[in-house]
């Protein structure tokens, strides 16, 4: 609690008298003195000379909550309507609005704000204060602005019950809902902190949430990151053990070879907070979720909202961004292919480049290294090529992919997406070699140090080993559940199962993280193709690569044997036992296998079930679904569909992640549709598929990419570490020097 010591009177006590009082109390009642001093220091350090400024629409409860917060802090409480405007004008706010009209009212209200000044107070703004830029700039100079975010439907209900018939901007041509929606842009412009306020949340609870949010805002030490391989004892001894979000975005891989995870886990949303997002758009949901996962000291809320708006704006062909479509029975498809490169990777990689550009120091150039099994490559190249020119001058991308291990259209994409700061290199090996090579390069301190000293260039990662890649994936899993609630398929709180075609374990891990944050997901179904190492592992607890060779399939994005993000999942269910994780993955690296302890396997099997699908069954599923529904699944989604059919119990809805558009795998799709003669030209294949008039239509971005001419070539190299390092150094010389 923050309320013990009287904050206001202390401002009137001189330093000498305060010292005398403190000395007498300390000598006579040392325990009481310690408690009082600790409480005062807590309150003073939370507020100090700053103001807490409550902002939100009319009916958000700013006045009531302001009084409660002020009581808890024992500080002055000022209501702008009652204590400033009506005192200045000597009349009621509603009468003033009636007398002078909407536009002049905003100006007069703003001028009153400009003349007002205080410190160490809780201030409740009027609903229209944020619409006056100069007035808000003046207030924000000495305050932390807290946005009480209440769903529009709740506000409308409250205003109706309060018989409010006049707010600023309301006229015969504008509905109340339109006005409330219009104002959101101004609230989003000014706030430092957002507090979600549901319909039935008591004012006392909201006041506590405000204090907790302000505490978080002022203390970035609350949100640090650790390596999955760090021991608890080692963390306290290492001076540099604490990393922040901006650090892990840039560094990618932890120095000990582990992966970064939040030390205190991810934030948890209440059921009411999730329900408040049911009516929200995809971008609004993303803003709310990511604000809670990224500390404002790393990226301020206003900047984060700007980045999210850029990432999920015109780049996506569907206004819903990640729509949920009913397939059949209890099965629903989460369509994750409406981004510019037609795969789920776009959700992270339209966002991460902007996060990265914001977080990196200006004094250094950065080369992003990427290993891809297909979809990541074009998504990374496209995302980083959309940065502003000044950022492209200091950030470049090198993408390594298995030369003969991706689909022809995927390769065409990666070649065509090459730009002045983005290049692709085909490697004469498989994805596992590419991924392992990237990890080894990152942990090669001599090579990284040489690049920094010689060329002023640091290395960074954009694979799913980078923590920032996972956060946008959490958003779409949460959003899919909320969409089912919004569509009336389930009430909030009813469980769903999720089935995901899985290779590197990042997508399914993000779904698990969504569950830890409060989304009611029951089972996670891990779907593999012929490279079914994960299926065997989940069933037996033995991760065994001995004697296994990677099999090329028509679902190349999951042609993976070493699943990097599995390490994060095991770290989580092992209660952050970094020593155990280190032991397991060192054994995998050195001996090619490991076995989970029995108790850990039991935990894993409470969450996960797994199955795999053959090539024959995959193509048969594509044909069957098209024949019965007119919908074409891509090869990865077909793998998930087959496994879901086998493992689901049909007692709740199941959301199948449709991770890519079928256009990317045209030859396999045409075989599945039983086309006898297939033209080898990728553009011709897409034109043939478009003649089917299937759902969904041919992907617009792929067509545009394949029509492009120009960058039609790429580098190819041997599967040799020294050759890869040579290519990296050469690129740095050509781009940055």
TrEMBL record:
UniProt xrefs under Pfam families: SKI, Thr_synth_N
Classification via SUPFAM superfamilies: P-loop containing nucleoside triphosphate hydrolases, Tryptophan synthase beta subunit-like PLP-dependent enzymes
UniProt-listed GO biological process terms: amino acid biosynthetic process
Entry superkingdom: Eukaryota
GO MF annotations in UniProt: pyridoxal phosphate binding
Cofactors required: pyridoxal 5'-phosphate
HAMAP family recorded: Shikimate_kinase
Keywords noted in UniProt: Amino-acid biosynthesis, Pyridoxal phosphate
Name the record gives this protein: THNS1 protein
Residues recorded as bearing N6-(pyridoxal phosphate)lysine in the entry: 345
Gene Ontology terms: cellular component: cytoplasm
Entries under CDD domains matching the protein: SK, Thr-synth_2
Domain Threonine synthase N-terminal: residue ranges: 239-312
Coiled coil (residue ranges): none
Encoding gene per record: Thnsl1
Pathway assigned to this chain's UniProt record: Amino-acid biosynthesis
Family: Belongs to the threonine synthase family.
């Amino acid at each position: 609690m923050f309320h013990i010591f009287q904050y206001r009177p202390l401002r009137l006590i001189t330093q000498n008298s305060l010292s005398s009082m403190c000395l007498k109390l300390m000598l006579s009642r040392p325990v009481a003195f310690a408690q009082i001093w600790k409480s005062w220091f807590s309150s003073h350090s939370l507020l100090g000379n700053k103001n807490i400024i409550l902002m939100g629409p009319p009916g958000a409860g700013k006045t009531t909550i302001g009084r409660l917060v002020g009581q808890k802090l024992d500080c002055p409480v000022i209501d702008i309507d009652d204590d400033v405007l009506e005192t200045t004008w000597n009349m009621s706010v509603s009468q003033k609005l009636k007398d002078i009209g909407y536009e002049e009212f905003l100006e007069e209200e703003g001028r009153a704000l400009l003349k007002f000044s205080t410190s160490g107070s809780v201030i409740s703004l009027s609903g229209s204060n944020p619409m006056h830029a100069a007035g808000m700039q003046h207030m924000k100079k000495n305050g932390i602005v807290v946005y009480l975010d209440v769903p529009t439907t709740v506000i409308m209900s409250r205003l109706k019950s309060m018989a409010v018939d006049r707010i600023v901007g309301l006229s015969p041509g504008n509905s109340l809902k339109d006005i409330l929606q219009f104002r959101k842009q101004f609230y989003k412009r000014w706030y430092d902190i957002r507090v979600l306020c549901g319909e039935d949340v008591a004012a006392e609870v909201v006041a506590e949430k405000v204090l907790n949010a302000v505490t978080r805002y002022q203390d970035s030490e609350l949100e640090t990151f650790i390596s999955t391989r760090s021991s608890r004892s080692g963390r306290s001894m290492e001076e540099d053990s604490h990393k922040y979000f901006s650090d892990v975005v840039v560094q990618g891989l932890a120095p000990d070879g582990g992966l970064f995870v939040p030390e205190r886990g991810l934030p948890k949303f209440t059921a009411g907070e999730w329900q408040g997002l049911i009516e929200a758009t995809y971008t609004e949901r993303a803003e709310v979720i990511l604000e809670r996962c990224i500390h404002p000291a790393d990226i301020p809320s206003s900047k984060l909202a700007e980045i999210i708006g850029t990432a999920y704006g015109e780049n996506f062909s569907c206004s819903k961004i990640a729509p949920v479509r009913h397939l059949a029975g209890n099965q629903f498809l989460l369509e994750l292919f409406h981004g510019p490169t037609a795969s789920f990777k776009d959700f992270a990689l339209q966002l991460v480049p902007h996060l990265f550009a914001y977080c990196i120091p200006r004094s250094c150039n950065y080369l992003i290294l990427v290993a891809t099994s297909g979809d990541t490559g074009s998504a990374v190249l496209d995302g980083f090529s959309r940065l502003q020119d000044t950022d492209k001058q200091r950030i470049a991308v090198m993408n390594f992919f298995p030369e003969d291990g991706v689909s022809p259209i995927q390769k065409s994409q990666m070649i065509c997406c090459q730009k002045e700061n983005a290049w692709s290199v085909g490697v004469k090996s498989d994805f596992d070699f590419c991924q392992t090579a990237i990890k080894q390069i990152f942990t090669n301190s001599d090579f990284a140090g040489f690049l920094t000293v010689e060329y002023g260039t640091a290395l960074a990662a954009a694979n799913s080993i980078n923590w920032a890649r996972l956060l946008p994936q959490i958003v779409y899993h949460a959003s899919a559940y909320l969409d089912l609630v919004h569509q009336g398929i389930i009430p909030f709180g009813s469980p769903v199962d999720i089935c995901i075609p899985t290779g590197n374990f990042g997508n399914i891990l993000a779904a698990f993280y969504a569950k830890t944050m409060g989304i009611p997901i029951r089972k996670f179904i891990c779907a593999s193709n012929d490279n079914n190492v994960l299926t065997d592992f989940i069933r037996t607890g033995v991760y065994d690569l001995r004697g296994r060779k990677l099999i090329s399939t028509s679902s190349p994005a999951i042609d993976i044997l070493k699943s990097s993000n599995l390490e994060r999942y095991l770290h989580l269910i092992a209660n952050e036992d970094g020593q155990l994780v280190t032991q397991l993955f060192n054994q995998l690296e050195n001996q090619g296998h490991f076995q989970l302890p029995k108790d850990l396997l039991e935990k894993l099997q409470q969450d996960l079930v797994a199955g795999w699908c053959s090539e024959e069954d995959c193509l048969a599923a594509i044909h069957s679904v098209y024949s019965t529904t007119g919908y074409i699944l891509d090869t990865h989604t077909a793998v998930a569909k087959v496994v879901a059919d086998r493992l689901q119990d049909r007692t709740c809805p199941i959301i199948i992640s449709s991770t890519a558009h079928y256009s990317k795998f045209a030859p396999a799709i045409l075989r599945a549709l039983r086309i006898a003669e297939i033209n080898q030209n990728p553009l011709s294949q897409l034109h043939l598929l478009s003649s089917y008039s299937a759902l969904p239509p041919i992907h617009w971005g792929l067509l545009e990419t394949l029509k492009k001419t120009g960058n039609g070539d790429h580098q190819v190299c041997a599967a040799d570490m020294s050759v890869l390092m040579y290519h990296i150094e050469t690129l740095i010389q050509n781009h940055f020097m």
